């Protein structure tokens, strides 16, 4: 069991729009962050990205439930993200499962998130969501 991953998850869960300066406690200055929708290089860009993320939602929470260290400085976190956006899903909470692949020395220098971008966003857009639901029914 990785104490580093547990500590990282605890600190990451505590992030909000008012304490993004603490990203520097988690990430190195040269952090390379990737998710299915964005790619960010450097701590300043990561702060900007998280700032935009928190500005656009009324609620955002990560519940971590898996802490899998696979080598000295590499591991995976499994999580469920819950968020609420006033213009998506009628303002209801949206939940998406995912995992994060992390590489670190003292701090994380590579963070790659894996999740279903459709479940996160596209399925909740008014017109596109109906099209995706129709496609899922046809293919399922």
Automatic annotation (TrEMBL):
One Pfam family cited in the UniProt record for this chain: SnoaL_2
InterPro entries attached to this UniProt entry: NTF2-like_dom_sf (IPR032710), SnoaL-like (IPR037401)
Domain of life according to the entry: Bacteria
TM region positions: none
Domain SnoaL-like: 10-104
Entry protein name: SnoaL-like domain-containing protein
């Amino acid at each position: 069991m990785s104490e580093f991953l547990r500590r990282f998850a605890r600190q990451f869960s505590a992030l909000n729009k008012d304490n993004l300066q603490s990203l520097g406690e988690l990430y190195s200055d040269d952090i390379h962050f990737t998710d299915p929708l964005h790619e960010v290089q450097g701590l300043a860009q990561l702060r900007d990205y998280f700032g935009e993320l928190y500005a656009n939602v009324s609620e955002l929470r990560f519940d971590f439930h898996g802490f899998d260290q696979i080598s000295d400085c590499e591991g995976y976190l499994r999580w469920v993200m819950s968020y609420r956006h006033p213009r998506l899903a009628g303002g209801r909470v949206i939940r998406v499962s995912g995992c994060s692949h992390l590489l670190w020395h003292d701090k994380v220098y590579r963070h790659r998130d894996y999740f279903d971008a459709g479940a996160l966003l596209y399925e909740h857009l008014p017109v596109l969501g109906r099209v995706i639901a129709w496609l899922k029914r046809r293919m399922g």
